[in-house]
Amino acid sequence: xxxxxxxxxxxxxxxxxxxxxxxxxxxxxxxxxxxxxxxxxxxxxxxxxxxxxxxxxxxxxxxxxxxxxxxxxxxxxxxxxxxxxxxxxxxxxxxxxxxxxxxxxxxxxxxxxxxxxxxxxxxxxxxxxxxxxxxxxxxxxxxxxxxxxxxxxxxxxxxxxxxxxxxxxxxxxxxxxxxxxxxxxxxxxxxxxxxxxxxxxxxxxxxxxxxxxxxxxxxxxxxxxxxxxxxxxxxxxxxxxxxxxxxxxxxxxxxxxxxxxxxxxxxxxxxxxxxxxxxxxxxxxxxxxxxxxxxxxxxxxxxxxxxxxxxxxxxxxxxxxxxxxxxxxxxxxxxxxxxxxxxxxxxxxxxxxxxxxxxxxxxxxxxxxxxxxxxxxxxxxxxxxxxxxxxxxxxxxxxxxxxxxxxxxxxxxxxxxxxxxxxxxxxxxxxxxxxxxxxxxxxxxxxxxxxxxxxxxxxxxxxxxxxxxxxxxxxxxxxxxxxxxxxxxxxxxxxxxxxxxxxxxxxxxxxxxxxxxxxxxxxxxxxxxxxxxxxxxxxxxxxxxxxxxxxxxxxxxxxxxxxxxxxxxxxxxxxxxxxxxxxxxxxxxxxxxxxxxxxxxxxxxxxxxxxxxxxxxxxxxxxxxxxxxxxxxxxxxxxxxxxxxxx
Length: 647
Known about the structure:
Layout: H1 3-44, H2 51-74, H3 87-111, H4 120-154, E1 158-163, H5 167-178, E2 184-191, E3 201-202, E4 205-210, H6 214-221, E5 225-229, H7 235-248, E6 251-255, H8 258-261, E7 271-272, H9 275-278, H10 288-295, E8 299-303, H11 308-318, E9 324-329, H12 332-349, E10 352-357, H13 363-373, E11 377-380, H14 387-392, H15 394-414, E12 419-425, H16 434-452, E13 456-462, E14 464-466, H17 472-481, E15 486-488, E16 494-495, E17 497-499, H18 500-513, E18 518-522, E19 528-529, H19 530-540, E20 550-552, E21 571-574, E22 580-584, H20 590-602, H21 608-618, H22 625-646
Parallel strand pairs: 1-2, 1-5, 2-4, 5-6, 8-9, 8-11, 9-10, 11-12, 12-13, 13-18, 14-17, 15-20
Antiparallel strand pairs: 3-4, 6-7, 16-19, 18-22, 21-22
Helix pairs in contact: 1-2, 1-4, 2-3, 3-4, 10-18, 11-12, 11-18, 13-15, 15-16, 17-19, 20-21
């Protein structure tokens, strides 16, 4: 059956049930309202049924019931499901009952021929009895549904353990257990640490221990499912929990945040653990006022707008209301894709989008762009970033990363842009690759412009980002899908990682703090061993630890065993944002190497050997892969000495 047909049939079924349900509810409320009014009316007369009272009751019963039915109908109290009644529904019931009371009084005093005949106390008692009886019936319905319906269905569900003991976790537990469509039920809660209240319950679920008691509790309850609310645990704790679950044959699943689960759907979507969960860092809190002052109402140019970082900077920038967003890129497909994604949002926010296809090394094309668009803020994210490919094509790295940066920076200076921010990389620090060298020299070009320009120039330097084009994670995932092997250059290889949104947010935050000449370095956390990353991905794929072979292929040209975020001669100071530091280097005598820099750019189309020689003259410490091999040798000797000492 086509999905659309299934949806249509379900919708038709709902309509049919509603068509039957509405008349039944109306009939039930007519009976209830009549009974409530009879009670309220005769209670006023101490239940003495005199002939005069009986006549007055029958003559007013119809108008009272009709008035209340009308108020409840227009108050949408025949449209909700009693099994999902909440305190908000009871509050709404009290409001609509109050309105009904005034309507009944109005009908009595102004529309009935014997105006004011209904005793005022009867009208008040009728309202109170309506709240008690209708509210009580609805609560009883939900209680019966959750107590008996859920209990019966729970016997067929798998027991699960939910991590967390805050009130949000309690609400999640209650929602899961009240849902008849969920495949599991929460049988116990585990506290994150040992500071929990013993014999406590949340959402009707007992707290049976903390994370250290997982094995004991899971064995006792015969539970195989461990549920972890999103953002409940830091990456290190979640990694430890994942390893423990894998070792003990337990299944770990991530719950959405409570506000994401409250979408009107009884089904709470569970998802498998992913690598971002294991590497999760504290969420970024932007200084929104500072960023809004930078971007609101401004014309913003983003080079490399179709790339991983460039496109995310586009998305993040949109939130702060620029007047125009200029998407510059060389690849038409990626620019078309990001434009299609952002266009509906831009139209809604009143932001003008401009698509600009062009090469940042094309001086004439870039000049026309700056003349026509007059950008005030420039985020320069365009660059060649793939280390081994740039080793094979050094001239292209020089053109794109050096000449391209020089072209955009000079035009930003010429056309008086307010801010220019270049996205750099940790590979620019003590570079051992062509890519790293060109980014290092690009940093120096930006630094040189910052010394004399009215434009505020700055650099933002950070490490690897998860899921970016050319990232190691998609490569590993593809190798796992094919059954292996996973190829890693060296067992000791480590890298810094952060998510694409996190990196982009901090780039924008750094731009807002720019005063000119800074190299902002993002807090990358602790470096991650690539071997550990590969093992995590194997485990997340649901495979045994040793089911996928890991092959070490040797360090490739330009690679380092580890990355660095600062040069030795750089002085770092904190900024107003805890995840951004500013690095200041000793003065770089640009004039001494300006001619060499221009010569390097002129040599871009020459042989790789000539390009390498020119780079070495500019960066004497650059030794290409020889430096990496020397690191390897030194580290190996150091480890051998440590092992000998232990023996």
